[in-house]
Design goal:
Layout: H1 2-26, H2 31-53, H3 55-61, H4 64-70, H5 75-89, H6 93-114, H7 144-155, H8 162-168, H9 179-189, E1 195-200, H10 204-207, E2 214-221, E3 224-233, E4 237-242, E5 246-251, H11 252-258, E6 263-268
Antiparallel strand pairs: 1-6, 2-3, 2-6, 3-4, 4-5
Organism: Poriferisphaera corsica
GO biological process, one term: proteolysis
Protein name: Peptidase C39 family protein
Length: about 270
């Protein structure tokens, strides 16, 4: 937890720094400085939102070790910069009231996206033995990410447990882990092997050409994604290892209904 807690503290300090910089820009004697600051802030917020929605691009410009930590809170310092400028420019009580509530919402958003950094991985609650059948079933309702990762690694001949990947992917009680934390954890696990992992965004036809196994999140529920291990892909169906239900076969239409076009694919290092 120490590493992630340090990231939480650093991110909080950067957010406060954004607020203070915004106050300074807003108080600048040249009115255009504040307007430019707000415009730049809005552009940066839009850019960040786009990168979060397109992680296969984001990992090309930001190291995944950093991105996996700040994916849920990276927008907060920029938002606080804009809010700081707006606070300095506010002249009426009503305006400051609105900006103050925006600051509160930014704080809540920061805590919601970053509270996992202050939690620990319940390693003792996750399976600590390598499954002889290769396919790892999740032992907790939130552990589909480490289970799917362990399944893929076992198929590749790299014995790995759910508990080991739970630690490497920073899996947390309740919230589990994310695609980016899965990628970061897999890179750590593969550091001494002949494999590496990449995040790609293929459509179905491109997906058929990727080396397997691969790992992908599926949107079975409106508010929750579920990580699975892809085993076989043809023009008509997909065979996958579901950490909850075991081996499943989905036809193409069913799969594409849940498919998010985000895949972790394993490749041999050059």
């Amino acid at each position: 937890m120490q590493g992630s807690a340090n990231w939480f503290l650093l991110s909080a300090l950067v957010a406060v720094g954004g607020w203070m910089l915004g106050l300074r820009l807003g108080r600048n004697g040249n009115p255009s400085v504040g307007r430019v600051g707000i415009a730049v802030g809005i552009i940066l917020l839009g850019t960040w939102a786009w990168l979060v929605r397109n992680p296969s691009v984001a990992v090309q410009v930001i190291p995944v070790s950093i991105l996996s930590m700040v994916e849920g809170i990276g927008a907060v310092p920029i938002f606080m910069l804009v809010i700081g400028i707006a606070w300095s420019k506010s002249q009426q009580t009503r305006q400051k009231y609105v900006v103050g509530w925006a600051c509160v919402l930014g704080t809540v958003y920061f805590l919601h996206g970053g509270i996992w950094m202050l939690q620990t991985t319940p390693k003792e609650s996750l399976a600590s033995e390598v499954d002889r059948g290769q396919y790892v079933r999740q032992t907790q309702y939130y552990s589909c990410v480490p289970a799917a990762c362990a399944s893929a690694l076992n198929i590749l001949g790299i014995p790995t447990t759910e508990a080991e990947m739970g630690v490497l992917t920073d899996t947390r009680p309740g919230s589990g882990a994310t695609m980016l934390r899965a990628m970061n954890g897999l890179r750590k696990r593969l550091a001494t092997t002949s494999f590496t992992v990449e995040l790609v965004a293929p459509d179905y036809n491109q997906l058929k050409l990727l080396p397997l196994p691969a790992i992908a999140p599926l949107q079975f529920e409106a508010t929750m994604q579920h990580m699975v291990t892809l085993l076989e892909i043809s023009s008509e169906h997909v065979k996958l290892a579901d950490p909850t239900d075991g081996i499943l076969y989905l036809n193409r239409n069913e799969f594409e209904e849940y498919y998010l076009r985000k895949v972790l694919v394993f490749r041999h290092k050059n």
